[in-house]
Amino acid sequence: MSGLFISYRRDDQAGFAGRLADALGSAFGANNVFRDIDDIHPGEDFVAALTKQLHSIDVMLVVIGPGWLTARRNGIRRLDEPEDFVRQEIQVALDSGKAVLPVLVGGAAMPAEDDLPATIGALARRQAFILSDPGWSSDVTRLTESIKPLLPFQQRFSLRQRIAWVVTGIGLIALLATSLNAYRSESSADQLATEIASALNGRWTAQVNYDWGAVHQETFDLRLENGEIHGTASYLRVARSVEQGQLRAEHLSFITHSQEMMNDAPNLVITHRYRGMLKPGELHLVLESSGGQTTHTPVEFIARRVEK
Description:
- This protein is 27% helix and 34% strand.
- It is α+β, with helices and mostly antiparallel strands and 308 residues long.
- The protein folds into three domains: 4-152, Toll/interleukin-1 receptor homology (TIR) domain (Rossmann fold); 157-199, no CATH class; 201-305, Lipocalin, CATH 2.40.128.120.
- The strands form three sheets. Strands 8-9-10-12-13-14-15-16 form an eight-stranded antiparallel beta barrel. Strands 2-1-3-6-7 form a five-stranded parallel sheet, with helices on both faces.
- The relative contact order is 0.10.
- The model has no long low-confidence stretch (mean pLDDT 83).
């Protein structure tokens, strides 16, 4: 089997795991998506079936809800039990070099490496995806596009199709005439990569109306290197370093961090997650912040290129 394995806790946002399995089944085919409740038959050895599937799939999605990290049994945290199925699933996937993608649902935050058993600590260093109820459709689309390059059966798309998809997505219609023949030489592919980078590289500004009423002009200095986004993005007009930046077709995502200062309390690290789409001369972005004392609703805005 070549496909996807969805790891989740049945007592932590199992409904999200079901919705995700249905959505991915529609995108990649139900036979390419494995979830224990659907794919282990009555009387079948649970451990043996899971182990077999884990060794044959290409990508694992770890669905993390608010109770995933702290779930307990008999007073002991489930993740601290070596025989915990979720822990074993993740450990097997990490040890075998599979692509492991954390998927945050129900408003959950990404666990820190110190909060995880050492055997699965590397999970905290993987790029996480946020699936929210209000933005479910667009979030799943972004996740699906990020998974496609990781699945061998998805690599059947010709270079011509991939180029047309990229060009259509980001509006570089003028590039179509030269990119249709890119499959004939590496130099053409390199030229396409250069054109895509030039569509993103540079300075962008946006007026951001934060959910507590503040309005600030924010600046984004971005550059694309080998599919990774680097640079800075300002939050409350202070430049923050971009981390975990990615551009997949027209979809982009990155995170930054800031500190929340509280009276007579330790400063809290706030994580700012940006995701959106690259369009001609515009970045359509959604900002989600988590980790502080206050819960913030997602903020949508459009950044526009600053001409040199």
